[in-house]
Amino acid sequence: MKEDSSLTPQEVADLLKITKYTVYEMVKRGELPAYRIGRKIRIEQRDVDAYIKQGKKLKYKDIDTLEASPRTQAARQDYLSTSPGLVICGQDLLLDILGRHLENHSQGCRAFRHNIGSFAGLLQLYQGESDMAGVHLWDSDSESYNIPYVRRMVPGIPTLIIHLAMRQQGFYVARSNPLGIKGWADLTIPGLRFINREPGCGTRVLLDEHLYQMKLDRRKINGYEREETSHLAVASAVARGTADLALGNEKAALQVRGIEFIPLQKERYELVIRKEDLDKAEIRAVLDILNSAAFKSELEGLGDYCLEETGRIVAEI
């Protein structure tokens, strides 16, 4: 390949042994020059070579601890700015906190957050596009979380499921609950305006599994096809009066004025990683963070998290 030839993001990812998504993040932050041909992104080989050369200036063993000297801290920042990092899929705030702790850990790295739902996160993990995925997928047949889905959606790849937290899922309704909403069966109240989450996210799966279990026809739910992509978005719709009912976690209800929360089900929010990645220093750093007092203390201050099992490997698949 000629020195001045252009590469696709996937070709760059293959050269650097990182994911394509990480390449896009590097381009977005200006760490790797790129240009467009129509709707396609291209990167010059010489720019990739320059990036690799710059990265060779630092060795990970030179990055010691958070209490290191200013010189070492500066070296660590250089290392973080050029390290490939980990791609963390999921939509919960605790993953953002995990990413920040990871960047400050003595054996940490850059954390690239991809805010997508549980199905999409598992698919990216299976395709090698991410390093870990936060999931909360309820299976009505076994009345269990996550394990049945990981078995089917990440076939042939040994994985570990690490518990993050227990959360409460429930309905968002207007203050004083004017329609008297109590449970799942109330979704079909005549005239009720529902607002849904996008297909593939854990909240949508929870709804659809309960509809299946109760043999409720989703076509009878006014607003089933109306979708938003976050807990805050659907909670806001209820607060503004453009919807009467939505499903989401308790934390969003604490952040949006003018609504009440009706608890329905405790759910397990968990992290899925490839077992083969356990020998990576940055993955070991993640496990260390999840079991640390500092991480758990920060989550306790946010509410709506039960942390009794946080950091425990609950399944090996």
Description:
Helix 5 links the parallel strand 4 and strand 5 (about 110-115). Mean pLDDT is about 85; it is low at about 55-70 and about 70-80. This protein has 3 domains: about 1-55, Arc Repressor Mutant, subunit A, CATH 1.10.10; about 60-165 and about 270-315, Periplasmic binding protein-like II (D-Maltodextrin-Binding Protein, domain 2), CATH 3.40.190; about 165-265, D-Maltodextrin-Binding Protein, domain 2, CATH 3.40.190. It starts with 5 loop residues before the first strand and ends with a strand. It contains 12 helices and 14 strands. Helix content is about 35%, strand content about 25%. Strands 4, 5, 6, 9, 10, 11, 12, 13 and 14 form a 9-stranded mixed β-sheet that branches. Strands 1-3-2 form a 3-stranded antiparallel β-sheet. It is of the alpha/beta class and about 325 residues long. The longest helix has 13 residues, at about 70-80. Helix 1 (about 10-15) crosses helix 2 (about 20-30). It holds the Pfam family PBP_like. GO terms for molecular function: DNA binding. This is Molybdate-binding protein. InterPro entries: DNA-bd_dom_put_sf (IPR009061), HTH_17 (IPR041657), PBP_domain (IPR024370), SinI_DNA-bd (IPR010093).
